[in-house]
Amino acid sequence: MENNTIEEQLVNQPVIKIFFRYLIPSLVGMLLMSVNVVVDGIFVGHAVGPIALAGVNISSPIFSLFFSISLLIGIGGGALYSMSLGRKDIKKAQDIFTHAFWFVVIVLAVLSFISYLFLDHIALLLGANQQTLPYVVDFMTIVLIFGIFIGIQVLLSVFVRNDGNPNLAMMANILMAAFNILLNYILIFTFGLGVKGSAFATVFSQIIGIIVLAFHFFRKSSTLRWVKAPFQVSLLKEIMAIGFPSFTSEIGLAIFTIGYNLAMVATAGTIGVSAFSIVNYLHSMMLMAFIGLGSAVQPLISFYYGAKLNERIIHTVKIAERTTLVLGIMSLVLGCLLADPLVSLFGDMTKELHTLAVQGLRLFFIGYLFIGINFVYMNYYQSIGQVKLSMIITLLRGFILLIGFLWILPKLFGITGVWLAVPAAECSVVLFIVLLLRKATFKEMKQQGHTLADL
């Protein structure tokens, strides 16, 4: 697809048509990625048991770290890339992609090497104990050795989508999900590799995704190219500045996991961690839908901002608001009605563990009524380069309020308070957005247009 074709579609077609053209592939792709996560949990739970499941959950922050660094560079670079396309500056767009790609490769290679040297210490810091430590080490070892492929896949997926090819990004996720399920079954059940098999399946499926995404570069219409460009520190700083909210949000997921694990240990012991592991697998699946919505919105808003089409930005945000509300209601209904069979997917367990996980799922999913709005506005401010407001939302929901509620609510309501910490944090941030930001944002966009980024 040539750049003028991208411009023609984004400028001339109805906003709602463009929105769903990007949203549907993004949602399908992200939901299939989330299936990977749940399948990992189901296979590990059935083949190895709930302690191994807890070990994989404790290991997940290291995966989140790699993913977050990739988003830091990918989303920041992708937003600048789309802004450059909106301004018809193809050379600048290709410089941005080249810098972002090699930056991800170098940063993740160095991080993997350093982390591998201190593997046991990191596992203990994440909350491993004598029961879970072997499983944590097994999983983390594979992720650290092959983590660079996670980063490349995430980066290419972002840029291919920003280059007007969301369907290929979706196809990559479809094949990644299929191969992940197949490899999980073969490596865990046939070869008996346990947690290591789950980790191998995860990273090898990322390589499949990279191969699929690489086909984009063979299209004559592709704008995405590696170019010879002098190293620009200023460009890397700009990429990192815009991508920093995404990095912080992903780090927030690691903080969320660690915080919940610690709160569960203090409140309910190892059985609490196992129950949270099940809920967290299902949470990861539902969360991907909202991440997918943000991934669909970002290229559109960044392009419109570069092209100074502010009315289209407002229209896109309002459609996204309504869409995420529908997703939130559907997620909550799903969690309430199907909690029992969903928990049962994760293998045989004691009645106490099953009951605790079912209760947690129903309470935890209340947060989906609010989380989507927060994602829409985090991505909106980030997509126009207004990093400060995006960071405020990110820090409130992922750090300040979450940690505060995890500290206060369990003291007041016990285990119920632990489950309600996320819904309370997300609801509080929505109130902040609705009462203080939303109206002023639209007013400024209409009155001052392109100068909104200077606020």
Main attributes of the structure:
disordered C terminus, antibiotic resistance, mainly alpha, cell membrane, Multidrug export protein MepA, transport, antiporter activity, 455 residues
Entry summary:
The chain is an all-alpha fold and 455 residues long. Helices cover 85% and strands 0% of the residues. It is globular, with a radius of gyration of 21 Å.
What does this structure look like?
It is a single chain. The longest helix is centred in the first third of the chain and has 37 residues, at 50-86. The chain has 17 helices and no strands. It starts with a helix and ends in a 7-residue tail after the last helix. It has one domain. Helices cover 85% and strands 0% of the residues. Keywords: Antibiotic resistance, Cell membrane, Membrane, Transmembrane, Transmembrane helix, Transport. It is found in: Cell membrane. It is a multi-pass membrane protein. Belongs to the multi antimicrobial extrusion (MATE) (TC 2.A.66.1) family. MepA subfamily.
